[in-house]
Amino acid sequence: MSAEAVNTPANRASSFSATFWVGQMDLRPIALFRIAFGLFIAYDLCDLLPIATTFFSDLGVMRAPSCSRTWRASTGSRSPT
After folding, report:
1. What pLDDT is recorded for position 38?
2. Sign of the CA dihedral 52, 54, 56, 58?
């Protein structure tokens, strides 16, 4: 595809083309944000690891039978058991 065909007014007006949304943009700040966000998520997961059993197991705050009863009641079933 030639450069003239890409830069036609019909292609510039199309909302499905990448140049409509981003244009000529430097993508390095977005890449840096993605790296920083990934590092933050990794740090947060490592910080959560020591207390993960409290939140994600039956040894934690809400036991499985009470959790399943709450789930059925919240989905609109007629009987809570």
Report:
1. 97
2. positive
